[in-house]
Design brief:
The complex is a heterodimer of chains A (112) and B (110).
Chain A lengths: L3 E4 L2 E4 L5 E7 L5 E7 L6 E8 L2 E4 L6 E3 L9 E3 L8 E8 L6 E3 L3 E5 L1
Parallel strand pairs in A: 2-11
Antiparallel strand pairs in A: 1-3, 3-8, 4-5, 4-9, 5-6, 7-8, 9-10, 9-11
Chain B lengths: L3 E3 L4 E4 L4 E7 L6 E7 L6 E6 L3 E5 L2 E6 L4 E6 L8 E8 L5 E3 L3 E6 L1
Parallel strand pairs in B: 2-11
Antiparallel strand pairs in B: 1-3, 3-8, 4-5, 4-9, 6-7, 7-8, 9-10, 9-11
The chains are: A mainly beta (112), B mainly beta (110).
């Protein structure tokens, strides 16, 4: 069973607020990912990390930022939330390249 | 053309039948292939991984890979209502990034 955690699970917040979505894994995986998924739609990679102090933007343009100061922790921050950010955010991690990705339970964000 | 294509469905099968899910991919150098199951409102969970041509069986699930034809399939035998979910095909070319298909919705009727 994958040990990857996300908090909060649900968040309703007003426009313009700064928010940080937390993601932690206890498997020691080097690779970590953030995906955005709207209901019934496909996953879109928004950020990924090869390891500590290594982060890259994914395919989907996002106004969010990430950091990777510790191997196990990969938080995502929105400086100023907007209704267009309403979505589900999924964090994942994997060992090595080409390996299985293990997903956290997700954070469902609603911006009013 | 999408890099990983799946029929969105829904695919509806009666309980006890075999469900067959298909996926095609565009990058010939793809090396790793995965099937994930995603229940509504939940996160994806791995069902099967397959790396070489042929069949791989795990319980009621069989993954089939044909690299020459660039397709991957998933067979679910003795389908149960609890199998009703969206099934995501995912392909990795050997780098960090795995490409996910949009998924096929499966309904198993009791």
């Amino acid at each position: 069973e994958a040990d990857i955690y996300q908090t909060p699970r649900y968040l309703v917040i007003g426009t313009g607020k700064k928010i940080t979505l937390e993601c932690s894994q206890t498997m020691g995986h080097d690779k970590m990912y953030w995906y955005q998924q709207d209901p019934g739609m496909e996953l879109h990679l928004i950020h990924y990390s090869y390891g500590v102090n290594s982060t890259e933007k994914g395919d989907l343009s996002s106004e969010s930022t990430v950091s990777r100061i510790r191997t196990e922790h990969f938080p995502l921050t929105l400086e100023s939330a907007r209704p267009s950010h309403t979505s589900q955010y999924l964090c994942a991690s994997s060992e090595g390249t080409g390996g299985v990705q293990y997903f956290g339970p997700g954070t469902r964000l609603t911006v009013t | 053309q999408k890099e990983v294509e799946q029929n969105s469905g829904p695919l509806s099968v009666p309980e006890g039948a075999i469900a067959s899910l298909n996926c095609t991919y565009s990058d010939r150098v793809s090396q790793s292939f995965f099937w994930y199951r995603q229940y509504s409102g939940k996160s994806p969970e791995l069902i099967m991984s397959i790396y070489s041509n042929g069949d791989k069986e795990d319980g009621r699930f069989t993954a089939q890979l044909n690299k020459a034809s660039q397709y991957v399939s998933l067979l679910i035998r003795d389908s149960q209502p609890s199998d009703s979910a969206t099934y995501l095909c995912a392909v990795n070319t050997g780098g960090f990034k795995t490409i996910f298909g949009a998924g096929t919705r499966l309904f198993v009727k009791a």
